[in-house]
Amino acid sequence: MRFDIITCLPRLLDSPFSHSILKRAIDKGLTEVHVHDLRDYSPSKHRQTDDYPYGGGAGMVMMIEPIHRIISKLKEERPYDAVVYMTPDGLTLNQKMANSYSLLKNIIILCGHYKGVDERVREKYITHEVSIGDYVLSGGELAAAVFADAIIRLIPGVLSDETSALTDSFQDDLLSPPVYTRPAEFIGMKVPEVLLSGHEKNIELWRMEQALERTKSRRPDLYDKQHVAKPNIS
């Protein structure tokens, strides 16, 4: 799977892809991440990528020409399944979206900046618009890293435990249950006995009950999506 990320500030993306799971995925050849400096495609000798908005108003707008140049160049080299624009008014990223994107092969990600991009970019080149939440960041780079991380970890072989991603929060519209590790007792706090019992069915039932209770208390919006009765595992 290949990601081509277009940004005015490529150095902001050095760290996210240079450590931990994402770096290992790249090193294993399970994914490719290519960061492109939009300023390299500016028609201006000053490498300008933004200009004042028509009609006046505060802020600057990302110009269409540099974006046209880089996207056209990339599309000449290979087909792309999606051209994603990271923007606060896009669809809010969730686990089901990440699952769907993980099935694609080549994705372009355009990082927004300033007051956004010239609307003609969105009309002509963008196929998907994604937000990571109802707030505004200084630019789309951190959002692009979050978006790519959510997808890359789902690629087979990226996680050492193939089942780990399938049991994450939100995979079944539930938050994950509490988890514990050694020691079994610490400053008077004990791990629930059921987790020490070795009884797999009872453990799974406990985890389901805890996931439902945690979701009900912390994310009632997700809990309301549960229309099935708790499974009878006993």
Secondary structure topology:
Layout: E1 2-7, H1 20-27, E2 32-37, E3 50-51, E4 61-62, H2 64-77, E5 82-92, H3 95-101, E6 106-111, H4 119-124, E7 128-131, H5 141-152, E8 185-186, E9 189-190, H6 193-196, H7 200-218, H8 220-223
Parallel strand pairs: 1-2, 1-6, 5-6, 5-7
Antiparallel strand pairs: 3-4, 8-9
Please explain how this structure is put together.
By secondary structure, the protein is an alpha/beta fold. The protein folds into two domains: about 1-150, Alpha/beta knot (3-Layer(aba) Sandwich), CATH 3.40.1280.10; about 170-225, tRNA(m1g37)methyltransferase, domain 2 (Trp Operon Repressor, Chain A, Orthogonal Bundle). The protein has helices at about 20-25, 65-75, 95-100, 120-125, 140-150, 195, 200-220, 220-225, and strands at about 1-5, 30-35, 50, 60, 80-90, 105-110, 130, 185, 190. The strands form three sheets. Strands 2-1-6-5-7 form a five-stranded parallel beta sheet. Strands 3-4 form a two-stranded antiparallel sheet. A hairpin with a 2-residue loop joins strand 8 (about 185) and strand 9. The chain is elongated, with a radius of gyration of 22 Å. The protein starts with a strand and ends in an 11-residue tail after the last helix. About 25% of the residues are buried.
